[in-house]
Amino acid sequence: MDFEGKTTATTATDNMELPSTDARKPLELLRDTEALLRRPTVAKLSPILPPKLSNKLQTASSLADESLKELAEINLEEIGDFDLRPARMRVGLSFVGFGALMLVILLLHLKTLNFQVNSIEQMQKFWYQYVWFVCLGVAGLFILGRETMRPIRKIRKFPKR
């Protein structure tokens, strides 16, 4: 006996054709979406704000239009791994710096505002924040370590003879 099933009827999914859509670049989509949200907000806020503040808001809105227009012209396919290296290094340094800064602020808070509580009670009360800030710094160190160990593939330019 042969139990292999054969389909003879066509289903709705077989005949379905997807409509063709214009593939818009993500940065153009960001520009248009942001403009659709910002322009009505500026139009509603401008009449109720003082004239000086209203002019500053409209100037900021036009500056946002210009900068997002320039941003939308960037081709994401041309950006390589080497071009993103400085940005990744800055993110790692930001994580380390923010974690260290928040640890210092936490310790300053504990020493100035909770000076009557001993160290063990402070750790019991604020252990979650302490661990979070330390983990943020360690994550930044991992990002920095990964970037420093990554091989640099820079395009060499040969001198003309």
* Main pleated-sheet profile: none
Outline type = extended
Mean pLDDT over the full residue set: 85
Percent helix range: 55-70%
Q: What structural class results from the helix and strand content?
A: mainly alpha
Rg over CA atoms: 28 Å
The number of E-state strands comes to: 0
This entry's quaternary arrangement is single chain
Q: What is the chain-wise order of helices and strands?
A: HHHHH
Question: Which band does the percent of strand residues land in?
Answer: under 5%
Distance between the termini: 79 Å
Number of helices: 5
**Spans with pLDDT under 50 lasting ≥5 residues?**
none
Secondary structure blueprint with pairings:
Elements lengths: L11 H4 L10 H20 L5 H22 L8 H33 L5 H31 L12
Helix pairs in contact: 2-3, 4-5
Core attributes:
5 helices; 161 residues; mainly alpha
Plain-language structure description:
- The protein has five helices and no strands.
- It is mostly helical and 161 residues long.
- Helix 2 (26-45) runs antiparallel to helix 3 (51-72).
- The protein starts with 11 loop residues before the first helix and ends in a 12-residue tail after the last helix.
- 3% of the residues are buried.
Describe this structure in a few short sentences.
With 161 residues, this protein is mainly alpha-helical.
